[in-house]
């Protein structure tokens, strides 16, 4: 499932509300530093010179979309939602891969915040990131400009992280990711997908007692302001995966909630 426009929607996000999506990766194929077995966009495709939208193209597409949304809302009977918060709840960067790979990511976020302030000041600016580019100063600066930094950590051990996320950088470790995440001093949302299954002859399961203990320890070290845990919801490139039940997700969340963490579940 690939997104074919720079600014698309709004759509209803099970985690964020009414979301205007922003696609700053190629529209023809996925481009990511991970190759997650559960990714709805499929597998990475090798491309020598990926075509990314320019900063100005992103700004123009977003402004046109925001103008259109405001015009429609003003010409029609304003709903309770519009009266309270505007036509959208959030402007969300995710899409066909890892948005922080864009070389002008900082400038794009600066433009987005300015346009948000002009057209839809109650909307939040959110970025869903796999955390692999947090070693770049410009990416960290951009994310700190956003309202919601939703940053991935799918496992507490290197082996399980690599089986689930299939990082392009084979040397990437959980410890390195956690070091980058720690720089936000808890001012971010930690996002984790729980699943079971098999890929390439190897079992995948980040719900075992050992894996959960490692993940809980990572959460305690990072102390994020919010935790989002979720399950696979659409067709996945690896078909041998199991969707975790709502009841099991509640059991995973319970120990953290008991310690005062805010944990949301999408199941």
Brief characterization of the structure:
With about 270 residues, the protein is α/β, with parallel strands linked by helices. About 35% of the residues lie in helices and about 20% in strands. It is built from eight helices and eleven strands.
What order do the helices and strands come in, and which of them pair?
Layout (H helix, E strand, L loop, with lengths): L6 E7 L3 E6 L32 H21 L4 H6 L4 E4 L11 H15 L4 E6 L7 H9 L2 E5 L5 H8 L8 H9 L6 E5 L1 E5 L2 E4 L3 H14 L3 E5 L10 E3 L2 H13 L4 E4 L1
Parallel strand pairs: 2-3, 3-4, 4-5, 5-6, 6-9, 9-11
Antiparallel strand pairs: 1-2, 7-8, 7-10
Helix pairs in contact: 1-3, 3-4
Report on the architecture of this protein.
It is a single chain. The protein is α/β, with parallel strands linked by helices. The protein has a single domain, classed as TIM Barrel. It contains eight helices and eleven strands. It has helices spanning 55-75, 80-85, 105-119, 137-145, 158-165, 174-182, 209-222, 246-258, and strands at 7-13, 17-22, 90-93, 124-129, 148-152, 189-193, 195-199, 202-205, 226-230, 241-243, 263-266. The strands form two sheets. Strands 1-2-3-4-5-6-9-11 form an eight-stranded mixed sheet. α1 (55-75) packs parallel to α3 (105-119).
- Termini separation (Å)? 19 Å
Shape: globular
The portion of residues forming beta strands comes to 15-25%
Largest sheet, spatial ordering of strands: 1-2-3-4-5-6-9-11
Alpha plus pi helix count: 8
Arithmetic mean pLDDT:
91
Secondary structure class reads alpha/beta
Q: Write out the CATH superfamily name.
A: Aldolase class I
How can the largest sheet be summarized? 8 strands, mixed
Indicate how many domains the architecture comprises.
Answer: 1
The H/E string reads: EEHHEHEHEHHEEEHEEHE
Radius of gyration: 18 Å
Helix fraction? 25-40%
CATH topology: TIM Barrel
For the secondary structure, the number of strands is 11
**CATH architecture descriptor text:** Alpha-Beta Barrel
| Low-pLDDT regions | 73-85
CATH first level: Alpha Beta
């Amino acid at each position: 499932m690939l997104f074919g426009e720079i600014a698309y929607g709004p759509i209803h996000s099970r985690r964020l509300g009414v979301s205007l999506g922003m696609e700053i990766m190629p529209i023809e194929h996925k481009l990511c530093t991970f190759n997650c077995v559960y990714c709805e966009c499929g597998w990475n495709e090798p491309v020598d010179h990926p075509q990314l939208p320019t900063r100005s193209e992103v700004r123009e597409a977003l402004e046109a979309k925001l103008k259109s949304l405001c015009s429609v809302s003003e010409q029609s009977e304003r709903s309770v939602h519009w009266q309270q918060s505007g036509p959208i709840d959030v402007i969300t960067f995710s899409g066909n891969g890892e948005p922080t790979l864009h070389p002008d990511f900082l400038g794009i976020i600066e433009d987005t915040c300015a346009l948000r302030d002009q057209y839809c000041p109650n909307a939040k600016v959110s970025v869903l990131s796999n955390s692999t580019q947090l070693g770049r100063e410009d990416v960290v600066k951009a994310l700190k400009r956003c309202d919601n930094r939703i940053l991935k950590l799918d496992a507490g051990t290197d082996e399980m992280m690599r089986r689930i996320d299939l990082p392009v950088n084979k040397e990437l470790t959980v410890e390195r990711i956690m070091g980058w995440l720690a720089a936000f001093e808890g001012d971010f949302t930690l996002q984790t997908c729980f699943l079971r299954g098999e890929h390439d002859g190897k079992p995948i399961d980040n719900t075992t007692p050992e894996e959960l203990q490692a993940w809980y320890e990572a959460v305690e070290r990072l102390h994020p302001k919010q935790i989002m845990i979720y399950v696979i919801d659409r067709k996945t490139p690896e078909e041998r995966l199991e969707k975790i039940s709502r009841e099991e997700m509640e059991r995973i969340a319970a120990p953290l909630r008991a310690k005062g963490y805010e944990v949301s579940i999408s199941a």
